[in-house]
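@channel sequence for tomorrow's demo:
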Amino acid sequence: MFKLLYFIKKAFTPITIMVIPHENMKSLSIKLPIAAIILSMLFCAVGSVQVFSLASKGLDYPLMAEKVNYYSRQFGEWNSTMMGLKKSEQDFQRLFALGSKEKVLENMETSFSGDIDWDSLKMEIERAVTEVNEIRDYLRVQKDVYQATPKGYPVSGPISSPYGMRQNPFGGRAHHAGVDISAREGTPIRASADGIVSFAGWTKGSGYVVVLEHGCGYSSIYAHNKRNQVKVGQRVVRGETIGLVGSTGNSTGPHLHYEVMQKGKNVNPKTFFARNS
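structure tokens (generated this afternoon):
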């Protein structure tokens, strides 16, 4: 009983947090019980776990998902423990408010349950928060990869010429480094991933061209544009208009020539059209 009382007293003893501004303003003091601070940490941790649980459903990371599910259960148990301690504190407050020793003893429950080791609980929470921070860091990296990976069609329309060996419309056979997508002249061309414009100008064979560097080894090329609508050094996000479909350079009609490069090598853009995650 005394261990439980000591734990409750310690857990709900308020500590003072002072906010001291740089300007000539009054400092702000906030009193919060230790338990409230721990609960806040747990709620933030649970939020991170839930976000990762949703993300992991679309990714093939079974080991990480298993780890996250384990900590999700742990957080649930610790949250229940803290809530139980709060209820015990309220029960004791009502008991001691009866006003006399006799009334306290007459209304006291015959037994108390829940012998909790504060130091062990604190260590477990610290360990869990460390693990959650690792998961957050992992998610930040995955988010960067996701935003840098080309996804979907940069313009709506049918593929008129696929990736790979083909009959060149100007004679002979040659490797086609991208795909040609037919579209009406002036149709907006949209960035397939977040990135920075590394080139926006005219080339002899491809007419007006935009090149985006996405990071994580990815880049994309948009050629034969009627007009470019971005400048070198400009940051763009997925779906942002970067130019208009045209037929500049060596072209037989309005279309977008679209390439995706991974670590400096051309890859089939069609691979990225069906990506939904």
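heads up for whoever presents: The longest helix spans residues 62-96.
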